[in-house]
Amino acid sequence: MSTGPGMSSTAIMTPGGAPTPAAAVNVKPGRSPSQIAFERLRADKVAVISFFVVIFFIVVAIFAPFIVIAIITPKQIVVVAAIERVVS
């Protein structure tokens, strides 16, 4: 069967005899730009490691006041208060 003047060579014949465009046969759902970006990010190992390093620094920055309170001893607080009195 030859393709007529109105049919492209990529058309696929259905069982009923009607041509179906090849693009309609392999239809993939559309992806948003963020989905495409995350897919590319997951494929690159260095980017994944860098992403988690950045997230780590953000979490440390958010919880920095609580980390300082947990690390500083009462004796160090007295020393810092004395230094602040001298400076101001």
Any chance you could write out the topology, listing elements then pairs?
Layout: E1 12-13, E2 19-20, H1 22-25, H2 33-43, H3 45-62, H4 64-71, H5 74-87
Antiparallel strand pairs: 1-2
Features:
single chain, about 90 residues, mainly alpha, two-stranded antiparallel ribbon, 2 strands, about 5% strand, rod-shaped
What does this structure look like?
With 88 residues, the protein is mostly helical. Helices cover 62% and strands 5% of the residues. The chain contains 5 helices and 2 strands; from the N terminus they run E-E-H-H-H-H-H. It has helices at residues 22-25, 33-43, 45-62, 64-71, 74-87; strands at residues 12-13, 19-20. Strand 1 and strand 2 form a beta hairpin. The longest helix has 18 residues, at 45-62. The chain is rod-shaped and about 95 Å long.
Concise overview:
By secondary structure, this protein is mainly alpha-helical. Helix content is 62%, strand content 5%.
